[in-house]
Design a protein that fits this description.
The structure is a single chain. This protein has 191 residues and is α/β, with parallel strands linked by helices.
């Protein structure tokens, strides 16, 4: 695309920044292989503290699109960083009411009017109990002021060792005579 894209982001996982900054490597790959002159800046900050990033104040009310796949509570343990959301908020209700609410309040402030927020998140089984991450996320974002528009189904690979019977979101594909994993992308708009 000829359109100049500016990408800003935060990631709590310090392993992606040291010893080699994976984001810089990806940015250089895109520049070299795709020929795109897009700019990007990523910082090693938890999303709950997005307002502490160096670019937050400059971008308030100016962002067109926000795309995220927040951690699925304690299902995704990326690193030993103490700021991992499930370490800071080990109780699910606190994770929803504080982590999700603060994170997406920052996102709401960054988006321009009519800006779009895409959230890839899915319900999980946690210690034998189903956690309704999708509905809880919708409720939190609507309480902030977002308008929920619709859901997009994203087809994913099923990893070896993962039981197809344990998949919460699955769709039977007659062409391959098997189940495929589907995860939702929730689409929200700032009024």
């Amino acid at each position: 695309s000829k359109r100049k894209i500016k990408y800003f982001g935060v990631d709590v996982n310090s392993n992606l920044f040291k010893p080699l900054n994976c984001y810089e490597t990806l940015g250089e790959f895109i520049k070299t292989e795709v020929g795109s002159e897009n700019t990007y800046r990523l910082e090693n900050v938890s999303s709950v503290r997005l307002d502490k990033s160096s670019f937050y104040n400059d971008l308030k009310g100016k962002v067109d699109l926000f795309l995220t796949s927040p951690p699925y509570f304690d299902k995704e343990n990326y690193s030993d960083d103490k700021e991992q959301s499930f370490r800071e908020f080990p109780d699910y209700s606190m994770w929803v009411s504080v982590y999700l609410k603060e994170t997406f309040s920052h996102v709401f402030n960054l988006l321009k009017p009519k800006g779009v927020c895409l959230v890839n998140i899915s319900d999980i089984i946690n210690k034998g109990n189903r956690l309704n991450l999708e509905i809880d996320t919708i409720k939190v974002l609507e309480s902030i002021g977002f308008e929920y528009e619709f859901q997009i189904g994203m087809k994913q690979q099923i990893f070896m060792g993962l039981s197809r019977d344990s998949l919460i979101k699955r769709l039977y594909d007659e062409n391959i005579d098997d189940y495929i994993k589907i995860e939702p992308i929730l689409v929200f708009r700032k009024p």
